[in-house]
């Protein structure tokens, strides 16, 4: 497994940042997903050995991050959230300095810095002072610094924060390139669902210092056995009302003849057929609904609301 946690706890004063994190996840690009304050940054720093947990075990690529943090850091790259500039250095000097800190000799560090700046799209700005960089350029130079020593895994903490749409797309394209190449695996920490959906093949969802889901993205978005898309030959308000009266969650699916039906646990599609028969509704399409990432995320963190029935009544046209 790329990352594995068992009972990891960390408390700062009265704040419980990690409340017994347990889970394991593997993949080429893993999204560490959760709202601000969920514990994502703390967990990344625990993986790096920068923070020692109060309890629990942490395995990174099979290595014990608590007992041997130096070995883990040797194989990891890290792009922290926030500016982290080194004033007075150019982009090239910043990346080369990071390489030297990781043990590369000066000439090798300089050559690697050139390669990494080409990779992240800063080839024409490599000699400019980092103080003159835009936010997007600075995020990219931080990624170059994280990659320069050829790590096996790179941790990116909120790399698209504060970026304009074009810069964000360019950075996400870079993550996709890393995922699909023979370079390092990526852990992308973010609170933005779109970033994970676009770049990642696995996800770990955190809420209040706990892991709510860990695994392949496709497993999070499987078709839900209890949720169905129902299309009728004609709009049939009575079907929605009949199901709602039985405590079934029913919402419109964007068209008057389409319903999204969430059945209670234990009920199967036969309950929909029975309701349609009782109402005289002609069902022409019924299938299990695949979860969107937003639906799956809200369900994982226990925030998915129950939406009441909303059925458009036809306008009454007076005769004559």
Biggest sheet descriptor: 6 strands, mixed
Span between termini? 73 Å
> Per the principal axes of the C-alpha atoms, what is the gross shape?
elongated
Class of secondary structure makeup: alpha/beta
Q: Percent of residues in helical segments?
A: 25-40%
Can you list the strand order of the major beta sheet? 6-7-8-3-9-10
Question: What's the SSE blueprint?
Answer:
Blueprint: E1 3-12, E2 15-25, E3 29-33, H1 40-48, E4 55-60, E5 63-64, H2 69-74, E6 76-79, H3 91-101, H4 106-119, H5 135-147, E7 153-157, H6 165-180, E8 185-190, H7 193-199, E9 202-207, E10 210-216, H8 217-220, E11 223-232, H9 237-245, E12 249-252, E13 258-262, H10 270-279, E14 283-290, H11 293-300
Parallel strand pairs: 3-8, 3-9, 6-7, 7-8
Antiparallel strand pairs: 1-2, 1-4, 4-5, 9-10, 11-13, 11-14, 12-13
Index terms:
alpha/beta, 11 helices, 320 residues, elongated, six-stranded mixed sheet, four-stranded antiparallel sheet
Question: How would you characterize the overall build of this protein?
Answer:
With 320 residues, the chain is of the alpha/beta class. It has a six-stranded mixed sheet, with helices on both faces. A four-stranded antiparallel sheet has the order 2-1-4-5. It has a four-stranded antiparallel sheet with strand order 12-13-11-14. The protein is elongated. The chain is 33% helix and 28% strand. The longest helix is centred in the middle third of the chain and has 16 residues, at 165-180. The protein has helices spanning 40-48, 69-74, 91-101, 106-119, 135-147, 165-180, 193-199, 217-220, 237-245, 270-279, 293-300; strands at 3-12, 15-25, 29-33, 55-60, 63-64, 76-79, 153-157, 185-190, 202-207, 210-216, 223-232, 249-252, 258-262, 283-290. The model is unreliable at 305-320 (pLDDT under 50). α3 (91-101) crosses α4 (106-119) and α4 packs across α5 (135-147). The chain contains eleven helices and 14 strands.
């Amino acid at each position: 497994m790329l990352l594995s946690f068992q009972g990891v706890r960390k408390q700062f004063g009265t704040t419980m940042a990690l409340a017994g994190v347990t889970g394991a996840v593997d993949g080429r690009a893993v999204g560490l997903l959760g709202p601000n304050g969920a514990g994502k940054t703390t967990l990344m720093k625990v993986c790096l050995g920068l923070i020692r947990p109060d309890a629990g075990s942490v395995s990174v690529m099979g290595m014990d991050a608590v007992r041997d943090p130096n070995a883990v850091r040797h194989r990891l790259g890290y792009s922290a959230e926030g500016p982290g500039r080194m004033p007075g250095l150019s982009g090239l000097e910043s990346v080369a300095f990071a390489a030297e800190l990781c043990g590369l000799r000066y000439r090798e560090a300089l050559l690697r810095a050139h390669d990494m700046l080409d990779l992240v799209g800063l080839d024409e700005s490599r000699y400019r002072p980092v103080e003159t960089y835009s936010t997007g350029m600075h995020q990219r130079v931080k990624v170059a610094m994280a990659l320069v020593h050829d790590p096996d895994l790179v941790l990116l903490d909120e790399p698209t924060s504060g970026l304009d749409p074009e810069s964000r797309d360019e950075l996400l394209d870079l993550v996709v390139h890393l995922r699909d190449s023979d370079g390092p695996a990526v852990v992308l920490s973010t609170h933005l669902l779109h970033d994970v959906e676009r770049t990642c093949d696995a996800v770990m969802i955190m809420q209040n210092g706990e892991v709510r889901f860990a695994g392949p993205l496709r497993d999070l978005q499987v078709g839900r056995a209890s949720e169905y898309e129902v299309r009728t030959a004609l709009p049939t308000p009575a079907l929605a009302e009949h199901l709602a009266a039985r405590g079934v969650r029913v919402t419109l699916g964007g068209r008057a003849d389409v319903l999204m039906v969430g059945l209670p646990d234990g009920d199967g599609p036969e309950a929909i057929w029975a309701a349609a028969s009782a109402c005289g509704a002609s069902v022409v399409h019924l299938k299990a609904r695949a979860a969107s990432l937003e639906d799956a995320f809200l369900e994982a963190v226990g925030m998915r609301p129950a939406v009441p029935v909303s059925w458009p009544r036809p306008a009454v046209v007076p005769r004559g």
